[in-house]
Amino acid sequence: MGFKGTEEPNDPDDDESANWMVRGWSYSQVEDRDTEQSGPWMQECVLSLSPCSDLLVVAHKHKAVFLSAKWLTDGSGKEEMTLATTWSGTLSTEEGESVSSVICVPLASQKRSSTGRPDWTCVVVGFTSGYVRFYTENGVLLLAQLLQEDKVLRLKCRTYEIPRHPGVTEQPEELSILYPAALVTIDGFSLFQSLRACRNQVARAAAAGSDVIQPPPLAYKKWALQEMDSIVDHSSVGIMTLCVFDQMKNASILGGFHASVKGNPPAMSQYVTVGAGPYTGFYYAVEGSSQPLLSHVAMAVASKLTSALFNAASGWLGWNKNKNEDEAVQKQKPKVEPATPLGIRFGLPDSRRHGESICLSPCNTLAGVTDDFGRVTLLDLVRGIAIRMWKGYRDAQLGWLQVPEERVDREFSPSVARPKRHALFLVIYAPRRGILEVWAMQQGPRVGAFTVGKHCRLLYAGYRLMGVNSVTSQGWQLHTQQVCLLDPTTGALRTVNVPFHLALSDKKSERAKDMHLMKKITTLLRSRDIKPEDGIHIKYCLSFQALESLLSAKDAPVSCLTNVTRALSETLKQQPPEEVDGALHQLCSSQLKLLQLYVDIQELHSAEESQASSVNDSLEGFEEELSRVASTLQSYAQLTSKPSVSFAQDSPDSPLSAQAFLSQIECTVDGELKINEKSNAEWKKLGNFLFWGCLCGKSPIHKVCGTLQQAGISPQQLLSLLLSVWLQREKEVLQNSAVTVRQLHTLLLSLSDMKGAIEDSWDPQSVSPWWQQVRSTCIQTNNAAAALLAALVTHRAAKASIAARADSKLQSEWEAVSLELEQWVVCVRQLEDVLVLQTLLLVPPPQGAAGGAAAHCSIKVLLEGGTELLTAVCLRFPQSLSPDLLFAHSSWEYVVQWNKDPEVFVFTGGSISELGISTMMWSTFIVKRFSTAAFLMEKVKRTQDVGMGDKAMTSFLGSCVQLLQILMEADSAVEEVSAPELSVEEVWCGADGPASIAELALDQRGVHFPLVQHHFLLASLLHVAMTFSLRVKPLSLFDSKGKNAFFRDLTTIQLMPSGDMDPGLISLRQEFLMRALVGWVQAIDDVASTPSTPLPATGPTADWWPSLCLELGVLLQVNPDILQRHLVCELYNQGLDVRAEEMMLEVEDKDVLGSQLLVLTGQRLCYSLLHSQSQTQAAMELLARLPPTLCTWLKAMDPSELRCPMVPLAQTSRLVGRLIEMLPENHAQYSLALHLLEAVDVLTTED
Fold first, then answer.
1. Where is the Rab3GAP regulatory subunit C-terminal domain (predicted)?
2. What's the pLDDT score for residue 210?
């Protein structure tokens, strides 16, 4: 929706049809006159267009129409932007008032995700009664304000603009309202917040019918402009600060010779008015000279759900109103604040001239003024003088264009970045002459002139979005139009756009000539009827831009591009060599080469008869190899053959244009061609253009490959293009696989024979980068079937290539063994598995289940961790892949692998039937090795004969303990938990084959719990013996009944040991468990460096070994208190006093424990006094003072039994204190314990 100015102002009709783009609008509801008078009626209306061009307001007297932008489709299917009526009604509420001024103010969005589009647009309407009312786009009245009981002459707005230069003052946002005798300015921030609050309250009231809270009052300033006869228009320039010289000049003029000058120039708001007496007035209001006033906002939202839109519409349609309602709604007019007098500083006096309008430039330094003499005057607002005048523009309408510089060359300059330059243009519409002119500022020429209608309206807002600041505007792109022209006769709304370069010089500038020639080229290309002789029109346009624009034209035929490029090349050849641009000549040569290649490939594909490729012997037997996956390929093809919706331009059969071909291939300095991969879609289109005809057998493969090789394209890029089209068109490949597979094989061999494909120095015993490229593509793609076929064919081709190299080098009949072929064997097997998995994912879900796109898998996804893929499979088959079934099959497969290599640690987990799976695992794999290990340990304690080392045997026995424990827990929960049910999807209902592991597990009989517990005892004893390296005959710890019950079927009932055991057997068991506890204490001595160090959860130092020994003691009829006392003594013996104190709490017979610990304490004290290497004089003296009985007792102690004799005296003192607490006073050794306590205390004190 725009037109661009031309550099030929004397020919205004030349570009009218080409440069004006019409955007229609609907104004049928606005027009209430005869259609013959459709032109002049708009001159009587008040119009305002939003800067975003999304809202147009047309008002006449007391009625108004709001038109919003909408996308509509015409009969031909072309979409265009239109302005359609969204609201119409009566705006006046006071008797006799009418609309006198309107502006549309877009309000910025406060959301962080906003990019510069307005949140909503507020319509500000001024009335002849003095009221200013604010409406939404839907005609809902937000608030009304009576600031002066007089006609509103003009509404103007100023919004935030980013300063282009440092030091420029940021101007605040404001809304200015001009009355005949007053000027009111409303602060933009206050207005923005009030409008948002009112809009939110209106929405809440409409939704809930609640009362409306009064918004904050508006902050405004009111000036009484004096010393001017009449004022019809104004401009609020903004805040300015005079320089020191201007300040002194003004002070001298106003105050005379003795005037005083302030140190800092004050900030002032500048207002410029037009009218009469004087013709133009300049007013300056010093900041702080007038305090802002707070207004009483008249809210237009009732407490009940009474829509202002409904009220306005009812008045518009002539419905009868209830007079009582009118009287109830009427309110007393608010108080009108008096204005602050503001005297004129100076003006431009002209008694006969009357100003009509003033239009402020975007830079706030210039303004255009129209008058009743038909003149347009350009004012310099900084100096306050007129600097230019145009004659013959009666009733002129003005607008401004500020155009940024096109940063083409300067943006990439290595020099210091400079600020972007802007050009300023003044747009003048002369309705009586029906012409629109564009003038360069300040003294520039007319750069454009266009013939338009005589009843148009020039719409220039002069502002952008309200509510923007320096923080929120960062990263925004404000989509606003500066100048628009509305033609009521055609309903067209046009925008004005001017190139920056027109401000640089006149029409003879070289750049202007180039732009003009470019425009002619564009017009020529649009005609789509270009002849070879038309190339002469651009022979003088010797620039990259012209040629690149020509070659990128979408509708230009190949013949046109070739002829024009050849004509330009011949023109360059005719010029002197020193004047020829070498780069441009190189561009012409390269593009001609690419165009010739495009034509040659097209002719080869369009040939009626193509050379049929011969059957290659290297593919003999390929059908047998393919038969291995034929059924899977057939299922995959059936599941992927469903029709799908796609766009026509995305179809692989869509032809590749010459422009797209040129944009993807470039010619290097060496004359070779390089393909640029811009996007995946374009890459696939190029591959389809080059190779699909060959794959279908319709094009001669050797001629196509020869043409591409002669053009100088890298074989690696050609291979990548071939694979992309092969994978993209998987459906077509599978439909005619017999032909496409052989054609692919021939293409691969042809590309492999090109120079640079396979290096001559390549050793067949290493991996080839050429074939690795194919393998990498197959690994990454999601098209499993096409990738598998490509891998099978490439495997054959690589094998033939390696065999040829071997024959040429070795002249041997032996088949060459290559690492490359081994890589292909692995890749093919992986792709077969991926194809099976992908086919499984494509199986449609049952009816009623949640649908969705099937997940895609590849080798790369699976190797990098296909968690999402496995999740998709589980969602597709929730019953077959339930956690219970997965655990069951995983456990079984794991045990199968362990049975092949027993050195691997075996682990079992829960499953659909823990009881059944565990029973099957025990009877099938475990019990045989378990019994062998038990018998061997019974005889010679050698585990190598079982096929496992000591470490593997220890892990195996620990797994046996876990397995038997799972069996006992599962058997105990049989009566509490119902038997699981096996259910599968409907897809597998018709499948034939052996029963699954889960089915076999559910069919297993229940186990005999005492027999399982019996085996659990043996497994635990074996595990303890292997962990702590204890020599024991495990079967000797059981009686004859117990031995006979071992290694029987766990589902049978056996004769188990019962009653009290033989004391000798119990003694053996007790001795074994005590040895196990000693082994654990010795093991943790190295780990538990400090008492607070936590023990690990696995291994011989785990903290659960004592509990296990105590549990085994109960099952083996061994007194657990004996074991507990033994553990405490061993911990003290090892010097682990803190852990011993923890274990001591669980001992029941404290008297016996006290006697045992008394001996241990005596051994410690004996070592400290008699056997220590560092005996002190104090220790010898203490020994002499001890009672004879205690001294004799200490000398009888043997400290060599202590594994850790060097224990701190503090620990020994604490131990003696524990003894005193445990032993009763009548105990025979109580007095001895007291003497020990006294001796230890003396030693501790002296130490």
1. 717-867, 868-1224
2. 62
* C-alpha angle 525-527-529 in degrees, rounded to nearest 5: 95
Q: Checking DSSP bridges between strand 422-430 and strand 483-487, what pairing results, if any?
A: unpaired
CA 240 – CA 176 distance, rounded (Å): 17
CA distance 1066 to 1059: 13
Residue 686 CA from chain centroid, whole number = 30
- Residues 1212-1227, mean pLDDT to the nearest whole number: 83
pLDDT at 1169: 76
Query: Given a cut of 80, is residue 336 above it in pLDDT?
Result: yes
Q: Which has more pLDDT, 340 or 1219? A: 340
Q: What are phi and psi of 596, to 5 degrees?
A: -65, -40
- For the cut 90, the answer to whether the pLDDT of residue 354 exceeds it is yes
pLDDT tens digit string along 791-822? 999 998 888 888 777 665 544 444 445 788 88
CA-CA distance, 752 to 718, in Å (whole number)?
11
CB-based burial, 517-547: b 16+ in 10 Å, e otherwise:
bbbebeebbeeeebeeebbeebeebbeeebb
pLDDT one-digit tens code per residue, 895-951: 888 888 887 655 544 444 678 888 888 988 889 989 988 998 888 655 455 668 888
What pTM does this model have?
0.48
**What is the identity of the amino acid at 315?**
G
N- to C-terminal Cα distance for the chain?
102
Rounded to the nearest 10 degrees, the angle between the axes of helix 784-810 and helix 630-640 is 140
Sign of CA dihedral 652, 655, 656, 657: negative
Give the DSSP H/E element, type plus range, for residue 358.
Answer: strand 355-360
Q: Following DSSP, what letter does each residue of 152-221 receive, concatenated?
A: --EEEEE-----SSTTPPPPPPEEEEE-SS-EEEEEHHHHHHHHHHHHHHHHHHHHH-PPPPPPPPPEEE
**Phi-psi category of 491—alpha, beta or left, where left has phi over 0 and alpha has psi -120 to 50?**
left
pLDDT of the residue at 649 = 61
Distances (CA, A) of 929 to 422, 943, 944: 91, 10, 12
281 burial via Cβ count (<10 Å: 0-12, 13-18, 19+)? buried
190: pLDDT strictly greater than 60: yes
Task: Name the residue among 1007, 1017, 1101, 1122 with its Cα closest to residue 1054.
Answer: 1007
- Cβ contact 1076:1024 at 8 Å: yes
Q: Which of 84, 87, 20 is nearest to 59 (CA)?
A: 87
CA 1118 to CA 400: how far, in whole Å?
A: 107
